[in-house]
Fold this protein.
Amino acid sequence: MGEENKIKPINAFTQSLREEYERGAVEREGALLGQLLLTDKVLKVCQANSLWPMTFGLACCAIEMMATGMARIDMARYGAEVFRPSARQCDLLIVSGTVNKKMAPAVITLYEQMPSPKWVIAMGNCAISGGPFAVEENYNVIEGVDRLIPVDVYIPGCPPRPEALIEGILKLQEKITGGRHPWPQRKMPEKPEMIKI
Amino acid sequence: MSSETSVIGKLKAAPFQVDEVDYLKRGYHVEARLNENQVRDFARAMLDAGFFLDFVTAVHVTSGFQIVYQFAHFDETLRVNAKAMTDDKGEIPTISDIYQGADWHERETHDFYGVVFTGHHDLRTLLLSEEDSDLKPLLKSAEKLVSVETITRKSGEDAEKKPAKKTKEE
């Protein structure tokens, strides 16, 4: 590998991978590392296109989240369909629903159990601000999950449609990589009638 | 139908104040008015008669809490609504050792109203978080409190309407 190909890694994870490669510790999995030029940018594009959300539904928004994962909407198109039942395997927490006072410690624990880098989407009005529960008589609903954990993307709606959740994931990809659609997208054919069967 | 009438007949023979009421108006067939000392005996009688417990809840009134128990029969279309007032200290005997299903209903009622079910084995908070154990969110404010007489139907109310219905059927 020539000197000009040496990339200066910024991220600590990239740094450690590269050091391991240069030590010869990475053999099989990382065999291509030297040629691939694993930069922060490449890593971020990979992260943005393989978000692993937690299987964590709190209220009716979770139904929309399930619909988003199913065939008709199919969030797998953007690489975010691998719902993991363990916080240790997730990097995206979609807070889909109402967080009440008794649930709050569990939400915080789950967030803390997730390995970094990690992101949080507040889905629906309840998770954003308490929604219909933000009234004087409210005694047990946390009015906004951002009072408990940091939130990256807010998706308004009661509940938001699956398209809105997809848009939230696209916004998160934008936040991670700095640009919309970090992976090249296929275009819809402009003249569908010209497709011959 | 004969067995249904016999279940009702047995209820009426027992030493409790039970009245048949109009199901279409009330949503239950039999109403029982108990004092707090009769609650456990009544629950045992209901268990023996083949009823299950539907829910337990409370109504906040000026003189304390009216505890409402609703039972339904396993085999017949027969619902029984039992009401009992708590004593001066807001306490009433538990029925959770008779009906195991009453356990969480009583804990929930304790959460929301602070009613103490004496003899209950574990009155920790159920739905509220532990730090809110003194919150009692469903208590009414002073201006909204009414007396138990205001929310109780008069004994003749159904009796007056029942004959009118019968004439319609005829």
